[in-house]
């Protein structure tokens, strides 16, 4: 599908419905606290501990927190994982398509308020799209996402840390950073995510497909790892195997959620089966609840 056609479809099927479900300025939907320091006040239950001013707290012997006001405009960096594992899912709705729809929808919502939008794409290498404004910038990112990803030079597992470190390098002023990935990666991405969360307002979105944890019962089949090319022969009719697969997937998800929280951010899931409007409205509401 051409970028213009996809954007029009998303405006009609997603953005219009979000307009009716989500209240408030769209530039605040995916943002946490404001950016500019304005005042100090005594700590109240539920305040973000990261905003405690420890110097004033030590002098006054009472916890004080910094208050912030939001900038009129924000620069949003989309860190987008286009690795081989993102090609998994139904033929008409693979994880890569969901990533594209998320990026274009959020980009369009933010650009309507005059905010600047930029992106870093990870496939066999890194592709950076510098900050820009307006519909043309959304389409520029869309064209890059709709182009087939570069063929990997060899069978390697994704290193998500490469994408996150690239984000650290290009997002110098405090920004909104939205990471979209399936988080299937070699270890080590937690530290750069933690550094990003300290400097920026980070939203981590995990794109998943139910079939990654619940194989359909189709008998004995070969299953291939999209990134390493490794093949194994499995019997999907075996209830013990299916139970072990589900248990392993649940354990991995718990570990991912815990790692993201230790890095300073929540991990929100969007499934290939999800209605995108409901998914984004749910994430927005969860972030509002966290801020309260």
Shape: globular
Strand proportion: 15-25%
Give the CA-CA distance, first to last residue.
Answer: 40 Å
Could you give the order of the helices and strands? HEHEEHEEHHEHEEEHEH
Mean pLDDT: 84
Tell me the helix content: 40-55%
The largest sheet has its strands arranged as 5-4-3-6-7-10
Q: In terms of structural class, how would the helical and strand content be classed?
A: alpha/beta
Q: Total strand count, please?
A: 10
**Major pleated sheet:** 6 strands, mixed
Describe the structure.
This protein has 292 residues and is an alpha/beta fold. Helices cover 40% and strands 22% of the residues. The chain has eight helices and ten strands. The chain has helices at residues 3-21, 54-60, 95-112, 134-146, 160-170, 190-199, 239-262, 276-291; strands at residues 36-42, 64-69, 75-81, 116-122, 126-132, 176-181, 201-208, 220-224, 231-235, 267-271. It has a six-stranded mixed β-sheet with strand order 5-4-3-6-7-10, sandwiched between helices. A two-stranded antiparallel ribbon has the order 1-2. Strands 8-9 form a two-stranded antiparallel ribbon. A hairpin with a 3-residue loop joins strand 4 (116-122) and strand 5 (126-132). Helix 1 crosses helix 8 (276-291) and helix 5 (160-170) runs parallel beside helix 6. The two termini are 40 Å apart. The model has no long low-confidence stretch (mean pLDDT 84).
């Amino acid at each position: 599908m051409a970028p213009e056609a996809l954007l029009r479809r998303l405006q009609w099927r997603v953005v219009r419905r979000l307009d009716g479900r989500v209240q408030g300025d769209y530039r605040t939907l995916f943002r946490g606290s404001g950016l500019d320091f304005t005042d100090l006040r005594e700590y109240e239950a539920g305040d973000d501990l990261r905003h405690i001013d420890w110097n004033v707290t030590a002098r006054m012997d009472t916890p004080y927190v910094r208050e912030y006001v939001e900038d009129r405009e924000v620069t949003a960096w989309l860190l987008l994982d286009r690795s081989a594992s993102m090609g998994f899912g139904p033929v008409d709705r693979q994880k890569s398509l969901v990533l594209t729809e998320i990026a274009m929808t959020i980009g369009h919502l933010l650009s309507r308020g005059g905010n600047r939008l930029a992106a870093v794409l990870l496939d066999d290498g890194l592709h950076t799209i510098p900050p820009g404004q307006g519909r043309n910038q959304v389409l520029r990112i869309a064209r890059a996402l709709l182009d087939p990803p570069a063929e990997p030079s060899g069978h390697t597992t994704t290193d998500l840390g490469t994408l996150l470190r690239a984000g650290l390098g290009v997002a110098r002023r405090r920004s909104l950073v939205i990471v979209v990935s399936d988080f299937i990666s070699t270890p080590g991405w937690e530290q750069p995510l933690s550094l990003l969360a300290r400097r920026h307002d980070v939203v981590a979105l995990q794109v998943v497909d139910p079939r990654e944890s619940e194989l359909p019962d189709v008998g004995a089949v070969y299953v291939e790892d999209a990134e390493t090319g490794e093949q194994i022969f499995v019997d999907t009719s075996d209830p013990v195997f299916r139970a072990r697969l589900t248990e392993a997937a649940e354990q991995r998800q718990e570990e991912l959620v815990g790692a993201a929280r230790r890095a300073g951010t929540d991990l929100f899931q969007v499934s290939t089966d999800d209605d995108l409007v409901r998914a984004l409205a749910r994430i927005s509401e969860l972030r509002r609840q966290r801020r309260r």
